[in-house]
Amino acid sequence: MKTSFVPTMLVFLSFIGCSLMVEVKDPPANNTNNINNVNNVTCGDGVAQGTEACDDIDLRGETCLTQGYSLGGTLGCTADCSYSYANCQGDVTCGDNIRQAGEQCDGDDLGTESCATQGFTSGTLMCTDSCTFDKSDCRDGECSLDNFQECNPAAPNDCCPNNDHPSTCMDVQGIGFGFCMQTCTQATDCDWSLECLINPGGVCYYALCGQGAPTNQDLNAPCSFEDGRQGTCDTSVTPAMDTFTTCNLGGVLGEGDLCDPNKDPWAPGVGEQDFCAAGLMCMIFEGDPSQGFCISTCDPELERVTHTSTCNGSSHCVNLSTLVLESTDPRFLLRTPDRGICTGDQTCDLLTGLDVLTQQQCNGGQPCHMAGWGSLTGICLGAVGTGTEGMACEPGSFNSCAIGLVCTIADPLHDNDPFGTSNYACRMPCDVTQGGETGNPVCQTFAPTSECVSTSRFFTSDHQLPNNPNYGVETSPSPLGFCVPSL
Asked: How many Å apart are CA 156 and CA 166, to the nearest integer?
């Protein structure tokens, strides 16, 4: 999972207590008759020495089986003293740290290859999980800048090659500086989840989706690349006020398959085997935060408003929208988009308390509780309580309040520490977008001093809408409000 936003261009030998004394003698003279003298390694003399993998029939004890071929066979030696696998049989196992026929490399076994042999001047050659060379750390000339780093168009060689393709400094706006962009002629030239933009100049860039993208589709709708490949909008890296985000290319992992939620779609060596198919999202549930499951995405607001399922079977669309409350996050207090996943949880409308789809009471008469700070869609959960409006309740309680009320922060606008408060009360939820905050008709049934306050204002120091240094004033505050005492 990506942790940054879309770029804004186009966007010790020591021994304790003792000493080691070694008598150093003069080195022996070079003995041309000593076949063990590594100074005289000769490929073709029938003795495998030095860096030779083999020499004629001297295979250093290796066989086809030890080299990873499941059905054995006869291991041979080539004229340049490397193994010949022509008569080996069975499957070659990529990932066993043994480079075999058909593999450029395997783990740390790169053969004799390096960045230098691959035509670069510096860097470290690596191996991908699919046993092909990873040249992402190889450098050419005096390059020092990676893709998407700011550069000077007058020094294009500062941009380092990436994915076996050169990069250049693109000043697409003609303003005297640009960004290092990998060049391309087709989609396969680019890393996973990047596409080749022929205009301008054939460069690899992110595919964008959302209403602010050229395709102008909803964040919850399927997204596509210029060549027709399908993906899923990555709403985990954007606040709701953004009108676009990146389209992550769909992989081959299906519904319920294990996935890595921290996998970087633009890291070297990643591919379709690492990602959920288009229309699925890798979600962490409980336990190991490095392990997730592929689950179908859906449009939660569409489902809430139209009462029509956007999931298969009897699944409901759970809205994941909430507020980013971590103070170290640059999106501090901004709301996340209305994105949903299809689960077996029964969803309900916080305003009516009814099942989103059937418009009937929750199964078993359960009350409707908020699922996150950013959405009017709740979850049918717990048991009906007796707490009336304003009555104290326990934080996190699902059975304290009467039907229609939710246990939430009692007085967020006057509480000195809303993050750490234990002062909770049963409050009536309200829709800030319908009737506003001051004078909202839902809240007038309680007290004249009660107003419908968006949860986006609960945690800010001045109790106004968040004013983020990176984004400005929040333009997509949470529609979820509660009738609470006015300032």
From this structure: 10
The rounded distance, in Å, linking the Cα atoms of 88 and 72 is 6
Each residue's pLDDT tens digit, 415-459: 888 888 889 999 999 999 987 888 788 887 766 668 899 999 999
Tell me if 114 sits within 8 A of 122, measured CB to CB.
no
Closest CA to 362 of 341, 340, 342, 384: 384
Write out pLDDT tens, residues 149-163.
Answer: 888 888 767 888 776
Dihedral of the alpha carbons of 336, 457, 331, 196, in degrees to the nearest 10: 40
Within a 10 A sphere around the Cβ of 76, how many other Cβ atoms?
A: 16
Task: Quote the tokens at residue 439.
Answer: 């004078």
- Triad 93, 99, 104: Cα angle to 5°: 105
3-class DSSP state of 300: helix
Instruction: Tell me the C-alpha distance between 454 and 458, whole Å.
Output: 7
Count of all residues that appear for the chain in the document: 487
Q: How far apart are CA 5 and CA 471, in angstroms?
A: 12
- Whether residue 292 contacts residue 274, with contact meaning beta carbons closer than 8 Å, is answered with no
Nearest to 241 by CA among 409, 452, 470, 416: 470
> Is the pTM value of this prediction over 0.85?
no
378 sits in which H/E element: strand 377-380
CB contact at 8 A, 47 and 35 = yes
User: pLDDT tens for residues 395-405?
Assistant: 888 899 999 99
C-alpha 88/C-alpha 101 separation (Å) is 9
63 in Cβ contact with 85 (< 8 Å): no
> Both tokens of residue 398?
């699902």
Strand segments, DSSP code E, in 167-270 are 167-170, 178-182, 194-197, 203-206, 208-209, 223-224, 230-233, 245-249, 258-259
Please name the residues in contact with 96: beta carbons below 8 A apart, sequence gap of 6 or more: 68, 106, 107
For residues 428-463, one letter each, b for 16 or more C-beta atoms within 10 angstroms of the residue's C-beta and e for the rest, the string is bbbbbeebeeeebebbeebeeebbbbbbbbbbbeee
Joined together, the tokens standing for residue 125 give 């050659």
Give how far the C-alpha of residue 25 lies from the chain's centroid of Cα atoms, to the nearest Å.
Answer: 59
Q: Which long-range contacts (CB under 8 A, 24 or more apart) does 107-113 make?
A: 111/82, 112/51
Residue type (1 letter), 127: C
Give the DSSP H or E segment for 306: helix 300-306
